[in-house]
């Protein structure tokens, strides 16, 4: 086992971190333990060893049950005692079948076909391939473009980057390299009023009219846009999208990688409006292993089968990994057997009450919450290092980005930990 200083030194010299320069990396902290809603961090730079902090991020929104949960630990161990992986080509196994059964039973009824993918962005890749192959199978190969909205984020692989906001988004540098998609306006915020939804809908009608012969489908993050800006919008917009998709023979894709499994207060936002294709990930395994799923309808499956390939042209090596499937089923059972809605509501109430006073703080442009999500938007880009250090000093782990200091804590977080989290967000806002 390397000493802390050696570990951090090797990390700095050799390991890339997400959205971080290799030549001028920002500081990282060494995780030495995790339990419940807390992480144990060591950072000689700040002069602390094995400091416990409240995790405000759920490890990028995935660890909804917290860390070292005995039920999930046991599921992983039990499956590892049988077999850890087999190829999914030509073989199947109980963990994949059982997970499929759970996903089909807990999502809206038409979504009965399940593709198990490696990660969230890969599930979006697969969903977009499905859309294109469906249109080919229906005799419309000229339909190759997607309609989406500004402010969205769908992952870091090629096709998901193409439907991420091309100007203010994380992948603006790839304009001219990626497929060119059609972008509508950002949907109006929750509570904006029916007039705003109608104006937005009229704009989308015009976009579709201008590109109707090219469009294959519509893809959005329903209700809450995540890494594109943490923007919560009017649910009536989903009805508009469903109606437009039906009217113009487009497939509607909901990317619920961030919103699924209760985060917004709905088990899935797709309960409000049913898409043709649904992507889920992140919290699917409770944050234990990477896994995602794409669910679709019989009609879509028949259209894909009618294309010249006849099959979905995607087959990852670790598709349907038994360890990931086993822990995902355990995570789903743990969620649905708990009073998750009450937990999300409790978190929402405490975040709303605790963050609202920050609206008057210098440099704050907006404060908003939805479900177990709290967001403070600044009128400038966050000084990430300063804000993160301040949050840790207050006993909280946060990862701000752009102009946002936000939290998506594990559902198991206690009220006392929520109070600590709110104080840490305040510290980060003042420092950032």
How would you explain this protein's 3D organization?
This protein is of the alpha/beta class and 432 residues long. It folds into 2 domains: 4-68 and 339-431, Alpha-Beta Complex (Aspartate Aminotransferase, domain 1); 70-337, 3-Layer(aba) Sandwich (Aspartate Aminotransferase, domain 2), CATH 3.40.640.10. Helix content is 37%, strand content 17%. It contains 13 helices and 16 strands. It has helices at residues 4-14, 58-61, 70-80, 94-106, 120-137, 158-162, 194-211, 236-247, 298-305, 322-337, 340-355, 384-393, 415-431; strands at residues 30-35, 38-43, 48-55, 113-117, 145-149, 182-184, 215-220, 224-225, 231-232, 251-255, 277-280, 292-296, 364-369, 374-378, 396-397, 404-407. Strands 4-12-11-10-7-5-6 form a 7-stranded mixed β-sheet, sandwiched between helices. It has a 4-stranded mixed β-sheet with strand order 1-2-3-15. A 3-stranded antiparallel β-sheet has the order 13-14-16. Strand 1 and strand 2 form a beta hairpin. Helix 5 (120-137) packs across helix 9, helix 11 runs parallel beside helix 13 (415-431) and helix 12 runs antiparallel to helix 13. The two termini are 35 Å apart. The mean pLDDT is 95.
């Amino acid at each position: 086992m390397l000493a802390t200083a050696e570990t951090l030194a090797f990390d700095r010299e050799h390991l890339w971190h997400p959205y971080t320069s290799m030549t001028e990396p920002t500081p990282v902290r060494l995780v030495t333990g995790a339990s419940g809603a807390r992480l144990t961090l060591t950072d000689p730079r700040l002069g602390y060893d094995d400091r416990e902090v409240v995790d405000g991020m759920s490890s990028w929104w995935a660890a909804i049950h917290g860390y070292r949960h005995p039920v999930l630990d046991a599921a992983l161990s039990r499956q590892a005692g049988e077999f850890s992986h087999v190829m999914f080509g030509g073989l199947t196994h109980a963990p994949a079948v059982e997970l499929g059964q759970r996903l089909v039973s807990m999502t809206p009824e038409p979504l009965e076909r399940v593709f198990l993918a490696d990660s969230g962005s890969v599930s979006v890749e697969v969903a977009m391939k499905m859309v294109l192959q469906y249109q080919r199978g229906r005799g419309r190969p000229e339909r190759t473009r997607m309609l989406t909205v500004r402010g969205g984020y769908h992952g870091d692989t090629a096709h998901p980057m193409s439907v991420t906001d091309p100007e203010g988004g994380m992948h603006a540098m790839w304009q001219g390299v990626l497929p060119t998609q059609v972008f509508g306006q950002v949907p109006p915020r929750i509570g904006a009023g029916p007039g705003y939804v109608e104006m937005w809908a009229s704009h989308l009608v015009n976009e579709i009219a201008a590109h109707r012969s090219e469009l294959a489908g519509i893809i959005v993050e329903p209700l809450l846009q995540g890494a594109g800006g943490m923007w919560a919008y009017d649910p009536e917009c989903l009805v508009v999208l469903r109606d437009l998709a039906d009217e113009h023979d487009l497939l509607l894709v909901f990317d619920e990688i961030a919103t699924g499994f209760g985060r917004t207060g709905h088990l899935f936002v797709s309960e409000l409006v049913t898409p043709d294709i649904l992507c889920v990930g992140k919290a699917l395994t409770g944050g234990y292993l990477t896994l995602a799923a794409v669910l679709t309808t019989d009609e879509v499956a028949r259209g894909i089968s009618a294309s010249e390939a006849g099959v979905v042209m995607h087959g990852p090596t670790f598709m349907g990994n038994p360890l990931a499937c086993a822990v995902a089923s355990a995570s789903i059972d743990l969620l649905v057997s708990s009073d998750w809605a009450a937990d999300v509501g409790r978190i929402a109430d405490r975040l709303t009450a605790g963050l609202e006073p920050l609206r008057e703080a210098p440099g704050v442009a907006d404060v908003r919450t939805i479900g177990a999500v709290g967001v403070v938007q600044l009128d400038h880009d966050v000084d990430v290092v300063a804000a993160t250090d301040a949050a840790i000093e207050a006993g909280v782990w946060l990862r701000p980005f752009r102009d946002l200091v936000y939290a998506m804590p594990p559902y198991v977080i206690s009220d006392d930990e929520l109070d600590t989290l709110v104080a840490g967000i305040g510290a980060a806002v003042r420092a950032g």
